[in-house]
Design a protein that fits this description.
Pfam families: LMWPc (PF01451). The chain has 149 residues and is α/β, with parallel strands linked by helices. It contains six helices and four strands; from the N terminus they run E-H-E-H-H-E-H-E-H-H. Helix 1 (14-28) links the parallel strand 1 and strand 2 (35-41). 44% of the residues are buried.
């Protein structure tokens, strides 16, 4: 089983979108039993909060639900628990590596690196452009699944 943890700053927009998009993609590919997929935050600002309403609506537009998801904080133990720790941007990667004391096993990656891009997933908290975030997340998750298949 491949265990993937998607990570962003607050775990209410980008990383839960990636979590549920990836779950949808692996389910449609008949691979749900081969993956464990979750998401977490590098900060504690949103702990316990549900997925941000515009992010929920964007997922719902594509027939993807996220009911029951609440923000949780990344822990040092997550490094050993997951095979891949996928950050949404460079700041997430820096915070992840700081918490983990580095990345000795090379598990920390940027989502869009799987598409060949060097930029991070658009942050809708600041841009309010959930369509751009959807496009980034969907492309990244499709490329990640292709790389793992």
């Amino acid at each position: 089983m491949i265990k993937i943890l998607f990570i962003c700053h607050g775990n209410i927009c980008r990383s839960p979108m990636a979590e549920f998009v990836m779950k949808d993609l692996v389910d449609k590919a008949g691979l749900a039993d081969a993956f464990a997929i979750a998401s977490a935050a590098t900060s504690s600002e949103e702990l316990g909060n549900p997925v941000y309403p515009p992010a929920r609506r964007k997922l719902a537009e594509h027939g993807i639900g996220c009911a029951g998801k609440t923000a949780r904080r990344l822990t040092a133990d997550d490094y050993d628990e997951y095979d891949l720790l996928i950050g949404m941007d460079d700041a997430n990667l820096r915070n992840m590596r700081r918490l983990f004391g580095g990345d000795p096993d090379g598990k920390c990656r940027l989502l869009l690196a799987y598409t060949g891009s060097t930029h991070g997933v658009a942050d809708p908290w600041y841009t309010r452009d959930f369509e751009a975030t959807w496009n980034d997340v969907y492309a990244g998750c499709k490329a990640l699944l292709a790389a793992l298949s």
